[in-house]
Amino acid sequence: MIPIRSASTAQQVHDWLYRCVLRGDLLPGMRLSETEIAAQVGLSRQPVREAFIRLASDGLAEIRPQRGTYIGRISVRAVLSARLIREAVESDLVRMVAASRPDLTAMEAELELQARADAAGDVPAFVESDDRFHGAMAEAAGHPAVWQDLERLKAQMNRMRHLSMRVFDRSATIAQHRAVLTALQAGDGDAAETAIRTHLRQMLTELPEMVRTHPDYFTD
């Protein structure tokens, strides 16, 4: 874990821990120590305790009385729900983009960043660029707030993605993104919808495999 040198509030500690959980730096089942984290961030235990409570309210930690605070397991149900919502929403978004033919250079730039992150084996950078690719698509459709709403729904999905992208072929994800972008550039709504649905359904293959290989990381 990396110390927060500028943290001064429970919110900052929470935000740092939240990112660590999503990125897989803190894995399901790990115990969080108030004392150790307080020492790392240079704060008293009270704001750290408050951060733990907020993390638990996010569904990312479990506070066990008399035993401590532990990183929660990944909810399979939440992952599947977020994926389903994303497919429905993003299928509409790509049709809007295909019909309006806006500037898509931001999406193109993210594909280049993903290729570099893949080559470097930098999974966090890859997943962050993946998110920006989809966010740029919502922006191009004229609905940037939609992606912000989706972000709030997909914490468990993001945890799964950070784990799966360490294992599965990231170049396949890039190829799927390229198929989406190519269809959008051509103004082909049917092809764009097919491509985005194919891309988002990849998780239906990855999730069962991750549950099989890491059963202790997941819960129904």
UniProtKB/TrEMBL annotation:
One of its GO terms (molecular function) is DNA binding. Transmembrane segments: none annotated. It comes from the Bacteria. The keyword Signal does not apply. Keywords: DNA-binding, Transcription, Transcription regulation. Residues 7-74 form the HTH gntR-type domain. SMART domains: FCD, HTH_GNTR. This is GntR family transcriptional regulator. It comes from Paracoccus liaowanqingii.
